[in-house]
Amino acid sequence: MIYDKLTRTAEDQKFLLNEILLNHTQAIQDFGQEVVRAFHGDGRLLVMASGNLGTVATLVANLLAHRLAHDRPMLPAIDLCQNTTLATALIADNLGEQFFSRQLRAIARPGDIVLAFDDVRHDAAVREGLLTARDLECRTAKLLLGSESDGKDSDYLFCFPQVPPARGIEGAVFFGILLCELIEAELFGF
Known about the structure:
CATH class: Alpha Beta
Radius of gyration: 16 Å
Strand content: 5-15%
Number of domains: 1
Shape: globular
Number of strands: 5
């Protein structure tokens, strides 16, 4: 029984990774180059996410700010998921959908890039954050797990197929690490 579970899990992950590589390789490379251009122009990468994907957003921002595999200077990546005081205050006032947009209004500027991780629930806070980013003349990207989107709220859309939630989180981590590797290679030649 455990072998069947492991085999099924491995097959699900293999399917997702193949889909990512087959359908998004060029777009991931293009997005990575756009982030590099932003960093060269004093721009920053602001990362936000809904639900359990908040952990992935935090990881991606930290891997860029600190390092993935090589010692190098910090890169300007900021995680917008960690302000629990603001989150609970907004939720208490029935304004939870403004969690990311308020932070973006305070710190985002033209030349920044906003990367959002979202899932099938299409979090209202993520959607409003992306719209605010556009209003602030930031470039935007969204990784969406499990559901098609019209893509109108982002400049880049990485739509991954419906898979079990754990596989989707693993796919989002894979995407984030791949993005970090591409950025590090471009900036530092690793």
